[in-house]
């Protein structure tokens, strides 16, 4: 994580979600969330993109979809009047991971330096490797 963070787990009778996240003094929020593939809350990548695109005032750009084997990755940026975000969804057979960098528009250049490093640092590893 490029900034100090906290970790937490959300448990329900049906699923367990793990997350880490932090917020800088400039208002930049960075988070990584893991949801089990069986979770009712696990997002459909197509629906997530449509949801962000349909909200008034949102502008979705830089959409990249990269299915590879058992992993499907969707990355995009969304801009609003005051804040913007870079989001990456990684869907595997066992879980969906969501990496997010949300920031006040005034700090767009600050975030540009950490976006690829943060997204690129995420690796999945098969159990037993």
Describe the secondary-structure layout.
Layout: E1 6-11, E2 16-23, E3 29-36, H1 45-54, E4 59-68, E5 71-79, E6 83-91, E7 95-104, H2 108-120
Antiparallel strand pairs: 1-2, 2-3, 3-7, 4-5, 5-6, 6-7
What does this entry show, briefly?
This protein has 129 residues and is of the alpha+beta class. The protein is built from 2 helices and 7 strands.
Keywords summarizing the entry:
single chain, alpha+beta, Protein Transport Mog1p, Chain A, 18% helix, 129 residues
Q: Report the helical percentage.
A: 10-25%
Q: Output the structural class.
A: alpha+beta
Q: What's the SSE pattern?
A: EEEHEEEEH
Oligomeric state of the chains in view: single chain
Give a short account of the largest sheet.
7 strands, antiparallel
Question: What is the CATH superfamily?
Answer: Mog1/PsbP, alpha/beta/alpha sandwich
**CATH architecture field:** 3-Layer(aba) Sandwich
Overall mean pLDDT stands at 87
Domain module tally? 1
Q: What's the CATH class, please?
A: Alpha Beta
Radius of gyration: 15 Å
Tertiary shape: globular
Total beta strand runs? 7
Report on this model:
18% of the residues lie in helices and 47% in strands. The radius of gyration is 15 Å and the shape is globular. It has a single domain, classed as 3-Layer(aba) Sandwich (Protein Transport Mog1p, Chain A). The protein contains two helices and seven strands, in the order βββαββββα. It is an alpha+beta fold and 129 residues long. It has helices at residues 45-54, 108-120, and strands at residues 6-11, 16-23, 29-36, 59-68, 71-79, 83-91, 95-104.
């Amino acid at each position: 994580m490029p900034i100090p963070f906290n970790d937490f787990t959300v448990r329900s009778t049906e699923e367990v979600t793990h997350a880490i996240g932090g917020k800088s003094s400039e208002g930049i929020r960075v988070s990584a969330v893991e949801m089990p593939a069986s979770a009712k809350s696990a997002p459909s990548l197509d629906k997530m993109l449509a949801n962000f695109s349909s909200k008034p005032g949102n502008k979705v750009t830089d959409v990249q979809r990269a299915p590879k084997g058992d992993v499907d990755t969707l990355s995009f940026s969304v801009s609003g009047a005051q804040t913007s975000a870079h989001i990456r969804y990684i869907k595997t057979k066992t879980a969906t991971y969501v990496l997010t960098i949300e920031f006040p528009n005034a700090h767009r250049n600050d975030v540009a330096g950490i976006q690829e490093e943060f997204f690129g640092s995420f690796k999945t590893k098969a159990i037993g490797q």
